[in-house]
Amino acid sequence: MAIREILTVPNPVLKQVSKPVAVVDDAMRALMDDMLETMYDAPGIGLAAIQVGEPVRVIVMDLQEKPEDDPEGEAVKKPRYFVNPEIVWKSEDTAPYEEGCLSVPEIYDEVQRPARVKLRYLDYNGNAVEEDAEGLFAVCIQHEMDHLEGVLFIDHLSKLKRDRAVTKVKKLTRNAA
Ligand code: ZN
Known about the structure:
The protein is an alpha+beta fold.
């Protein structure tokens, strides 16, 4: 496993539409392993392959929930992998959430999305899965699936807010370099 560089705005690669994965093989699993390590290192709760420069429809996620019997305890790692995810149903009701993104560091803003969705995807072993998502899981999977279309959460904001965010990130990444 290796930690990859996470691309940040305004890198044009982030605007690319990612291609479907033909087969979930060892090379694809190696990419998912790298993505997960990169995400944990950042740290973040979700990462799409395009964020490490790979234009394929792959997402990793770990909502890092606290153990139910010990809410003060350390989060238990529960990695999830989504290959070629599709939303097959979404609720009409929406919910707001203050989102952030590893490709738009230190920027947080509220986005409205469908509160519940039904997904279909292939897992780490290439098995087809159908699953309902709500709460943070629904927010996160919709945010990550936007990345597969070249869409960032700041694209859901006003042009003024978006431009301001990109300027801030440019300044931040220049200072870090
Ligand atoms: Zn993101």
